Amino acid sequence: MKTILQKTAAVFLLAIPSLVTSQVQKSLAIDLTIGLNYAYDPPTGCNNQINNISVDICNNGSSSAGSFLVGIYLYDPATTKHWVLDQTTVNSLSGNACTNISNWNINMNNYPSLPAPGSNYRVGVWADTANVITESNENNNASLLSGNIQVCAASTGIKETGMLLTSFNTSPNPASSAGQLNFNLLKEENVAITICDLTGKVVAKIFEGTLLSGEQKINFNVADLTDGVYFTALKTSGGLVTRKLMVQK
Length: 249
Known about the structure:
mainly beta; Immunoglobulin-like; 4-stranded antiparallel beta sheet
């Protein structure tokens, strides 16, 4: 039987600082938010399956929003750490309208960046995970769904980690041909860095391998990309971090 969820009004993007970045689309009449109708089947026993997720994504503004990503994340209230589990694309959303995303299933056994086993984790929904939409209210894009869920040890190896980097930024931005990613790793870590378009499709692989702790400078090239809005995605065992990237030649 599905669990009916209620929006937790006290938890917004500002409660999760790494989710906040600069914005692109300039229409202050757009306001993306999570709707009031939620449902999901929580994990049963230790199967680590979150099934039948259904959620409304709404635009309280009067102008239409272009393509943006919606993400499901796992949240630890005790540490305020989060782990992005999956993302899907909303191609557009008219003003004063809602769209429903349903039949969304997530197998956490396939995601190696989970925290230690426990029963106090929460499921969250985040509209515009790539932060490409400028809105009249930037503080209501993420919300926790009611009810705690249990995370169990999996054969893929669940690690007790949070976001393992700081100061992740791209320069120059906009970039015309070459650029550089700058970030600080808190420990030696396997890192995968890609450039994705607004649909979440990987258009360039920048780096994949092990990096030592400390300041990192990774060069990339966007000469083959057309002008537009992209985002860089950096994945470690602590989760996924994205930053907006403009390509302008």
